[in-house]
Amino acid sequence: MDKLCRGWNFTSNHSEDAEGRIIIIWRDSVSVRVLHKSSQSVTCEVKIPGASQFVYTAVYAANDGVTRTDLWVELLQISQAFSLDSAPWILGGDFNQIIHPAEHSLADVNHLSSDMVELKDCLTQLGLYDLRYQGPLFTWSNHQPEGPIAKKLDRLLINSLVLSLFPNASAFFHPPLISDHTPCILDLAFKIPSAGNRPFKFYNYLTKHPDFLLVVQNAWAQAGSMVWNLTGLCWKQKQIKGELKILNRENFSQIQKRVSEANRLLTDLQVQALHSPSPQLFEQEKNALQTWRFLRDIEESYYKQRSRVNWLKVGDQNTTFFYRMVQTRLSFNLIRSFVLPTGVIIEDATQMSIHAVSHFKSILGPTPVPAPVTFSSTGWMGDYINSIVLVLSMGSSVRLEPLYLGFALCGTGVGFPDITSSLGYLF
């Protein structure tokens, strides 16, 4: 390799498989240490300059199910041997197996098979899931026009610790060209477009602040005593929103840092109280403990609401789990690009925003069609009032709803001479 490409290194699994199914190549600036090799996988520890090290496993699963099962068992053993549940782990390659019927192009494949469940259970035990990717769902095709079949056989998987290390990571599946598989490129430093101003979100923990009700009541009163329409209600809500933002910023912003500082203060006071017990230190320790517990509950509530996980009991202090779920949701929900009907990919933030506004305007806000103009004679009201006068003169009763309309029209200054003259004649 050094003779052909200076500054590059490689490793492969030729020692484990005669065909050498996996080859890993890297630059000299990257440090790679091989941890494990087999006929179906290569696992190595990778250190990129300026970033923490992570573990990468390249897989090339066998075509037959029995041998593939050996790979799933091997991955579980690798995870246990190198404690990969506590290390950033990226795993990618050709798995030669789908995990859901939706990953097969044929409609006849409409149920979970034992092979699908086997791989899915393995990935669940490993804590691995698909990194957010761009490109086609199917990554393999048979290229046979008479019986076309496509499947998702290739994947790029990560555990939650990878998003902590590379929060902007993204995968790209490109056209296969001469191959029957789509190549995948992993970008660990994908540039995320600026989101601009974030919309207001009400966090449930705000209600736990002792001044919450007072702040809402004061903001509501300052915006006026009564509201009679939606405009007034919207104005009041905006006033409350501003006050709640201030309440949140002054008391709960950077909640992780606040919890850490409260913990440090508590531990310092506990050490002082043990060295020199006194009523003052015990009282300070008691207050510090209450503050720390309160902020921990706020932190848990914050991440639980953002993670949208509702099935765990409140109070279990699953903050780490909720935090990882938040990172996962952010990674999956972020819109990184748009693919136009022409196939052009837009990644510029400004162009994306213009395209999004244009798209939704065409659906939700088309140019209104002007209402058709209708013409009618204005003399009908005068004739109607004259007929009312005739009926009343004969001692009969009559409904006067149209008469109210006449008064309304006169009040607007429209000025129908026959209406005003008839009303003048009537009264």
Automatic annotation (TrEMBL):
Record-annotated Endonuclease/exonuclease/phosphatase domain positions: 42-181
Matching InterPro entries: Endo/exonu/phosph_ase_sf (IPR036691), Endo/exonuclease/phosphatase (IPR005135)
GO MF assignments: catalytic activity
Taxonomy, superkingdom: Eukaryota
Matching Gene3D superfamilies: Endonuclease/exonuclease/phosphatase
Name of the protein in question: Endonuclease/exonuclease/phosphatase domain-containing protein
Annotated Pfam families: Exo_endo_phos
